[in-house]
Amino acid sequence: MLQALGLGVAEEAVYTALLARPTGSAGDLVRQTGLEESEVSRILIDLTARGLVAVAAEAGGGGPESAGRGAAGRPSDRYRLTPPSVALAPLLVEQRNALHRAETAFSMLTEQYRSTAAHPAGSVVEVVVGVEQVAHRFHQLQRGAQRELLVFLVGEPSAVDREDADMAESSALDRGVDFRVVASKDYLDGPGVGRDVRAGIAAGLEIRLVESLPLKMMVSDRERAMVPLDMNPGDEPSAIVVHGSGLLTALVQLFEKEWAQARPLLDTATGVRAEPAADDRPTEGELEVLALLLAGISDRRVASQLGLSIRTVERRTRRLMDLAGADSRLQLGWHAARAGWL
Asked: Is 29 part of a structural domain of the chain?
């Protein structure tokens, strides 16, 4: 927690240990943190010099000069924290200023790179070759996203390990990034994909399904896109990174077009499945059968009440179960309630 303010792991352990007591000696802190006595003494000297810790006044009346020493004294000395609101505030300001300087440098370097490219196309399209280079660039774009990620997924081998991609996905969702995915139907056939998709949906991922997609793609904040290149057997993985341009705008429009036509994926009791299309929803006649079945009425009585044959009732029930992806009538009832069929 305090490492972001410039404290090391051991320094943070000593500092937080002092939070639990008004004062503490080096020996107390050794027992509480499990660190070596020499390391605790060194840390106390450093924290005292930085104004985060002060030497406490002795119980017998050490005098104000004892309490006010600017550095650690005798081994028997006891220490107390300087109020965090006073001591840590300058460190926080320093880190904020450092981040601001880094952001300024980032903007300047980005502009310099674009302005000194060998030719105009060099500032628009960047070619990346090799497994490590492609994976590194992928993580840069995904972890750098602040607002939005747009992704096409297809069921082909990738230069980026799926487990690594899932971790980057979780990081983006944790940051509150709007994460939308369009997946081709064959993508769900991969081993373990269903489990990962369910976890993503639970974390806030929006994912839709289409029959096929023309390419793999990731767009970060509508400012950069990464598109893997087709590979011949034995070729090194490669990709292009597209920066702000008409080409990037076209890729974003392609995503939005596919997104509008795709069907949302649902996390159901029987696994991940696409929401039925309009012509795959229950008919009025099928819903009449469903309502009576959920009321506990037998197939024969349903057929009698609706003036249907037993075979028709069974056929309509079978189609309802197919639409719901259910293996039992209990699962059919659960899905019907969740999908709002009745």
From this structure: yes
For residue 225, tell me if it sits in a domain. Answer: yes
**Buried residues in 93-132 as b, exposed as e (16+ CB within 10 A):** eeeeeeeeeeeeeeeeeeeeeeeeeeeeeebbebebeeee
Whether 289 and 190 map to the same domain: the answer is no
CATH number, position 25? 1.10.10.10
For 35, phi then psi, to 5°, come to -85, 165
Beta bridge partners of 27: none
Last residue of a domain, one of 229, 254, 274: 274
Q: Is residue 73 part of a domain?
A: yes
Contact in structure between 213 and 154 (CB atoms under 8 Å) = yes
DSSP 308: -
Same domain for 259 and 288 = no
Q: Which amino acid is at 23?
A: T
Show the domain range for 52: 2-89
Same domain, 29 and 15: yes
Eight-class DSSP state of 80? E
* Pair 224, 134 in one domain: yes
**CA-to-CA distance for 268 and 186, rounded, in angstroms?**
19
Tell me the average pLDDT across 290-317.
89
Distance of alpha carbon 140 from alpha carbon 21, whole angstroms: 43
3-state secondary structure 181-229: EEEEHHHHHCCCHHHHHHHHHHHCCEEEEECCCCCCEEEECCCEEEEEC
Q: pLDDT tier at 167 (50, 70, 90 boundaries)?
A: low
Query: Among the residues of the chain, which ranges form H helices?
Result: 9-19, 26-33, 37-49, 64-67, 84-87, 89-115, 131-144, 162-174, 193-203, 246-261, 284-294, 299-306, 310-324, 329-339
Beta bridge partners of residue 218, listed in sequence order: 151, 226
pTM beyond cutoff 0.70: no
pLDDT tens-place string over residues 75-92: 667 888 777 767 777 777
Residues 151, 214: one domain?
Answer: yes
Confidence of residue 251 (pLDDT cuts 50, 70, 90): very high
In the structure, what pLDDT confidence band is assigned to residue 192 with cuts at 50, 70 and 90?
confident
